[in-house]
Amino acid sequence: MKKSKILMFLGALLPLLLFLFPLWNITLEAPQYPIPLGMDIYINDFADANPHDIKNINLMNHYVGMKYIPDAIPEFKIFPIGIITTTVIGLIIAFKANHKWYLYWFIMMVLVSAAGLYDFYLWEYDYGHNLDPKAIMKFTNPDGTAMGFQPPLFGTRDILNFRAHSYPQLGAYFLGLGIALGLGAYLLGRREKKNENL
Asked: What pTM value is reported for the model?
């Protein structure tokens, strides 16, 4: 079996590890919480980084009018189907297609991943800005507008006395590696094809 085909098989299979490992993590540090509050985001679930973290985050967010972190969101049904579908397509391509199709799979995965990140940003924006006007505590910016509490999409941001961290986790790295292997399979396959024609 050609090395490029093996790379394509691996690239197509690695995203399935998203079902085992978290995709993203959001952590909140504050003086009143000696142990930071954290939430792991899986492809089909939210999970506490430490026991009762999500419950404590929801209680805290209630005071400023933020929505509760739900038990489920529509994406938890859509994303698993998307990953399984793209994996099956990748395996079929590895079995049947030539190296040019490896590039098409790579492009598809980049677009799907970008769409997922954009959806995550929209969720964070709504979560941090669509506040209950009847909230117990209200905070405003210097210009008088309502303060938003959106955590960063990537990186660290100070929100009042909290420091919010948002970073990819092991599942995201496996996804990225799988996508990279798809590109590597294409480049290696192209070289293999040239060598065959010499």
From this structure: 0.90
